[in-house]
Amino acid sequence: MKFRDWATRVTLIFLMLAALILALLVGKARQLPQGAATSTSEITTWRQYPQIQVHSFSSKQNQAANIIKSANTKNQAAGRYTTTLAFDKYKPRLEIAAVDPSNYGERFAQDINGVPVKNQPIVVIHETSDSAASAVNFFQTPHTDENVQASYHAIIKLDGTVLYLVPPEKRAFGAANSVFVGSDGEETVQTNPNLPPSVNNFAYHVSLETPLDGRGNNFLKSHSGYTEAQYNSLAWLIAQSQVPEDRITTHKIVDRSNQRVDPLSFDSDKFLQLLNTYRQLSPVYRAQK
Prior knowledge:
With 289 residues, this protein is of the alpha/beta class. It has helices spanning 3-31, 40-46, 85-89, 132-139, 228-238, 251-254, 268-278, 283-288, and strands at 81-83, 94-96, 104-106, 122-127, 154-156, 162-164, 170-172, 180-182, 185-187, 203-208, 248-250, 279-281. It has 8 helices and 12 strands.
């Protein structure tokens, strides 16, 4: 074979490989929604949310193997808080369940107008209004109507079981028309031109399973409250986050539809006391203050 022929073949092979690589990259880019968060700094942001633990999963883990990809036995977000010995000793039962993809989405780096969004994370506490099983069934049902799509990142059952649903790096549809008011003023992000702005893009949504006497009546203003196990598991879960107390809120507070009143009968003092038992300011952060 002449050198010229050999060089021509090598060049053609190289061009074919380059075209294949380019096609793969284009395909990958098309899979990401416009504005979806992908940078290292954005990944660091969602690491501030509670991460999935793996110490005692039930057999349900096989139903949602994709969720476990982000699981870690230690909180990976170094910073303001570290967990305590009490946190290490508390071992709630853990379960995971898959949520239909129509009921959650990506966290966005830009709003619908292309404006960068850099909100710090918040935690929003809800209640299910019915059983945890009923909520999971709804989240696992495909919904094409954007007005009814819904999910939480996690549910705390009556017995204290932590049920993981949506990975923390994804955007759960936990609050529709909503605004968080903090030290930086009003915060909300519109990611869908057909829906009002909400806190979903920077929120971690966790819901308490409603007690039996609180179910079946949408006009209740109170009920018997939540179990000790629920308060402990809720505090244990949020203790893994880097979200400060002033950015932990409730669905009732962020809601702007005037329709949400959950979580009913929530004892915030009890919760905060337990939260401060399971986490503390890190020595490094304390030294910098």
